[in-house]
Amino acid sequence: MVEGEKATVSFDGHRCIHARRCVMGEPQAFKANVKGPWIDPDATDVEALMRIAHNCPSGAIHVTRKDGGANEGPPAANVVIVRENGPLAFHADLRINGEEVGFRATLCRCGLSRRKPYCDNSHIKGGFVATGEPASKETELKITDLVGAVEVQPVRNGPLMVTGKLEVESGTGRCVDRAEKTWFCRCGHSSKKPFCDGTHKAVGFQAP
Questions:
Q1: Which residues contact 148 (CB under 8 A, 6 or more apart)?
Q2: Cis peptide leading into residue 194 (ω within 30°)
């Protein structure tokens, strides 16, 4: 946690996937390849800091304002984006294992992460292959329905059980499905990715 004059910036390295939105977006405030402190909240304005937090897909960067401006709130519509050959990127009022974790998180779907349920980029070295463009399903939910808390419960040795209204979105922004409850594969072997098909049992997947 780094205190600035107009804002406090928190960084959670356990959740970071090195998307580099911070160092590329505001390199004066988020300094790449330096030894020691690398975050300087006073090197840019508060709106720029908020923009960086909003663009951080993993939720590793969080900004709390001191200038009286509004802090980040839940999105107008809950969404989980299926990343090509990569994780599930959630943007919602999230609770994971019953704990409030903010509004963004990238969760493992390759089965290889050492930080489950969070992604740690192990899909890259592991050569995980899974489309970010799964087939669309019919849905009766409207975009305006996609509000409220979203609960993510990793099932022991099984999928991510997700409860709450949200849209499953392809990497190019297409609606794949809208649901109130669904199960996402996290063993990496389902034939119906990103959804679970029970294959975790056959392959002996183990995860808390």
A1: 78, 93, 164, 165
A2: yes
d(CA 189, CA 146): 29
d(CA 107, CA 87): 6
pLDDT digits (tens, 9 = 90+) for 70-80: 999 999 999 99
87-132 pLDDT, tens digit per residue, is 999 999 999 999 999 999 999 999 999 999 999 999 999 999 999 9
- Measure the CA–CA gap between 50 and 53, rounded to whole angstroms: 5
Closest-CA residue to 106 (of 50, 148, 55): 55
Q: Helix or strand or coil: residue 203?
A: helix
Tokens representing residue 140 in the block = 């009766």
- Domains of the chain are 2-65 (3.30.70.20), 79-203 (3.40.5.90)
- 89 to each of 1, 45, 127, how far by Cα in Å? 24, 27, 19
Q: Give the whole-angstrom CA distance, residue 150 versus residue 124.
A: 28
